Amino acid sequence: MEKNEVIFDINAFLKKAVEEGVSDVHLRIDEVPVVRKDGVIVKTNYPVIKEKDISHVLNVVLPKYLRTKVQAAFDLDFSYEIKGVSRFRINLGRQMGNTSLVFRIIPYEIPTFAELHLPPAINTFSRFNSGIVLVTGPTGSGKSTTIASLIDLINKNERKHIITIEDPIEFIYSNKNCIITQRQVEIDTVSFPEGVKYALRQDPDVILIGEIRDIETLTSAMKAAETGHLVISSLHTNDAIQTVNRIVGMYEPSDRENVRKQLAETLRACVAQKLIPMKNGHGRLPACEIMVVTPTIKDFIIKDELEQIYDLVKKGSYNDMITMNMSLLQLIKEDLISKEVAVEVSDNKVEIEQMLRGAYHGTGTSEKFNIQF
Q1: Quick check: 174 and 157 in contact, CB under 8 A?
Q2: I need a surface site. Which of 126, 171, 191, 295 has the fewest CB within 10 A?
Q3: Which of 64, 37, 47 is nearest to 2 (CA)?
Q4: Percent of the chain with pLDDT over 70
Q5: Which residues does 67 contact at the CB level (< 8 Å), separation at least 6?
């Protein structure tokens, strides 16, 4: 990237970032601009950002409705758009008393499942008429993009009313076979729970909740699912079992038995994903754990026998369920990621090392993928 010797031109910088395939931009006072590309942090050769540069950037990107709040706020989320270039999700935060900004690049074009290299099994979730579908994973794991692709698939193939409740709005959808209503927290609705409550009065078929952050949003999501709507949302958890534990753990111990029953009845599927660096050094691909809630899994959730769920998912191809390690092995088989990276990112390193050595003989892995090393 070229240096700009005058004032920091945020629009020019963001355009360059989009051209170079950057996913995130970090701006901090007294540091050079930093970008994330292919999952790796890279320092640019731009001059150090000064306080006046941050002030100028805020003058450019901050929405009018937040201008009175910015001085008192510790954290803010909002969106910005450069017409014809991209949209950006922006987080304003404070560190050591100074303002910092993180930009996430949100492309106009919503990638297809094939372009994202997502398992085809996730396609079937678009045909659910009710229940909850959760996409989980750490920050920056591609959850929003996977959800956007799922919503776009429904938009193309179904005739429904989709309502999104987001903070802030990320991908912009155009009506295809569906009609889509996009609502932003603090602009179009007060909060996620309020947004879901009033969405139920707006003739929805599908409700996208940008993120389940608290017990109120979770309770609203389960009520919406119980009343015959498909609810799609995200959570910051690493796998299916952790997701069930996290949801149940949000409630008081005295309520958890009922919550397990409610969750067993409403949860339809959970996709946990990580973005893995490709072997050729260009880009990242998702490794996905897929859990579909079968009658047996419902029973395990109700009885709080969650360790049994992993064994069931691991055993095979029923409903195209797959563990994270099985997904990593599939990417190795396709020569897309290295064995070393797979072991490094796995949450169960002992198991994946056994699988790589051929010591694992579960019916799901070696037979389904015919992996040989």
Answers
A1: no
A2: 295
A3: 47
A4: 94
A5: none
Name the 3-class secondary structure at 319. Answer: helix
Query: What's the mean pLDDT when you consider all of the chain?
Result: 91
Q: CB neighbours (10 Å) of residue 186?
A: 16
Residues in a beta bridge with 183 = 165
254 DSSP 8-state letter: G
pLDDT of residue 23: 95
End-to-end, the C-alpha distance of the chain in Å comes to 42
Q: Which of 128, 153, 126, 133 has its CA nearest to residue 270?
A: 133
| Four-residue CA torsion sign, 229, 232, 236, 240 | positive
CB 356 within 8 A of CB 365: no
Pairing of strands 230-235, 267-277: unpaired
pTM above 0.85, yes or no: yes
State mean pLDDT over 183-210.
Answer: 96
Site of tokens 């450019």: 60
Label residue 318 by pLDDT band (50, 70, 90). low
Query: What does the pLDDT look like over 170-185, one tens digit per residue?
Result: 999 999 999 999 999 9
- Which residue is listed with tokens 């998702």? 286
